[in-house]
């Protein structure tokens, strides 16, 4: 749990999590405080990774400070600020409960703080690459290895900057890898998890893995960013390799294209299935609000979705989207994920060629998906 007016991005789970001060990585506000209570399962201990501690320096860190306390043993760590930083990027505690306290008074500079944590028995610990520290989820320098493993804490997707911001130890790329793993559907941001990657001919590949109830495909990490959206997609059932049959497609509109030679091309909704060859469905380019609707014929348990762009003479794809569901086709419920606070924004494709899967945690029970 967290409390106070100085809390930034926060996602805390029993096995891992990420937390930051308000406005991070921008300058943190004056006269704020935040208290985070980290609680791991009994019998485990917490490991804290200091991604960034940049608080304006002052004597004894009196002006702004980060303080950690172990209530079970009475041990305190800190206070920390810019002139009194942690001696190591990883703190191994002997406790399953840690209190993290951040406070600020008047100041002029400082990014604030970024921390992530996991437990001593987090999933995938036994699959760590050779050379990884015991009780560590840092990834070795990718430049020195063709295959490596990384444990991504929950909440890493929405962090700006590095999860572990210590480039001298080769960890600078870690947050990018974790964000891409979430994007690929290999892990869920709400849970975190172990990710294994390999470097082949200058590209990074995520090995297929069964995680969060969905079997992912080998997925190539890409740095490209797209702007327009023309998708084909399919929905997945709890049997991870089963694609649910779509009885009918419906859409807000479709694009009737007339090219420079006067030839017609109909980007109709029937072309929205992932198995379609040639061009896909596309909404009318002049439409303000667009949606694609899939009718499963009866109420089904939907655990994920796969999307792909349209590469037929075009380089079109969807970069992000919302999902809504309905049991009767009239009353629609936006998907909000396990947090339940805001409508979830799914990361879509980074090019028109690859398939990208996203998981629904919890699953959607509905007949219609929009």
Automatic annotation (TrEMBL):
Residues 134-216 form the LCCL domain. Residues 325-344 are annotated as: Disordered. It is a single-pass type I membrane protein. Keywords: Disulfide bond, Membrane, Phosphoprotein, Transmembrane, Transmembrane helix. GO terms for cellular component: plasma membrane. Residues 281-370 form the F5/8 type C domain. PROSITE patterns: CUB, FA58C_1, FA58C_3, LCCL. It comes from the Eukaryota. The keyword tRNA-binding does not apply. Disulfide bonds join 7-34. InterPro entries: CUB_dom, FA58C, Galactose-bd-like_sf, LCCL, LCCL_sf, Neuropilin_MCO_CoagFactor, Sperma_CUB_dom_sf. It is found in: Membrane. Its main location: membrane. It holds the Pfam family CUB. Residues 7-120 form the CUB domain. PANTHER family: DISCOIDIN, CUB AND LCCL DOMAIN CONTAINING 1, F5/8 TYPE C DOMAIN-CONTAINING PROTEIN. This is DCBD1 protein. It comes from Callaeas wilsoni.
């Amino acid at each position: 749990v967290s409390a106070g007016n100085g809390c930034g991005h926060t996602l805390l789970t029993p096995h891992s999590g990420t937390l930051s001060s308000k406005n991070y990585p921008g300058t943190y506000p004056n006269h704020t405080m935040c208290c985070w209570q980290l609680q791991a399962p009994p019998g485990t201990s917490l490991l804290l990774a200091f991604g960034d501690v940049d608080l304006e320096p002052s004597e004894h860190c009196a002006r702004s400070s980060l303080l950690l306390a172990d209530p079970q043993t009475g041990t305190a760590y800190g206070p920390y600020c810019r002139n009194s930083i942690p001696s190591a990027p990883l703190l191994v505690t002997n406790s399953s409960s840690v209190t993290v306290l951040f406070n600020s008074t008047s100041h002029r500079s400082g990014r604030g703080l970024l921390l992530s944590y996991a437990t001593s028995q987090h999933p995938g610990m036994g699959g760590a690459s050779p050379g990884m520290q015991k009780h560590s989820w840092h990834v070795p320098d990718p430049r020195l290895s063709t295959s490596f493993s990384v444990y991504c804490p929950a909440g890493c997707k929405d962090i700006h900057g590095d999860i572990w911001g210590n480039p001298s130890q080769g960890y600078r790329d870690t947050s990018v890898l974790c964000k891409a793993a979430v994007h690929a559907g290999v892990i869920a941001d709400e849970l975190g998890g172990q990710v294994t990657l390999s470097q082949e001919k200058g590209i990074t590949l995520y090995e297929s893995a069964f995680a969060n109830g969905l079997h992912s495909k080998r997925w190539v990490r890409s740095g490209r960013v797209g702007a327009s959206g023309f998708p084909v997609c399919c929905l997945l059932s709890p049997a991870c390799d089963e694609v649910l049959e779509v009885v009918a497609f419906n859409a807000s509109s479709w694009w009737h294209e007339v090219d420079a030679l006067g030839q017609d091309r109909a980007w109709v909704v029937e072309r929205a299935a992932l198995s379609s060859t040639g061009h896909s469905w596309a909404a009318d380019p002049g439409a303000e609000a667009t949606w694609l609707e899939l009718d499963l014929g009866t109420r089904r348990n939907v655990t994920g979705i796969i999307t792909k762009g349209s590469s037929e003479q075009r380089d079109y794809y969807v970069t992000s989207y919302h999902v809504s569901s309905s049991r009767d086709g009239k009353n629609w419920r936006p998907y909000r994920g396990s947090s339940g606070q805001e409508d979830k924004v799914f990361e879509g494709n980074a090019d028109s060629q690859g398939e990208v899967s996203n998981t629904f945690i919890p699953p959607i029970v509905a007949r219609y998906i929009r």
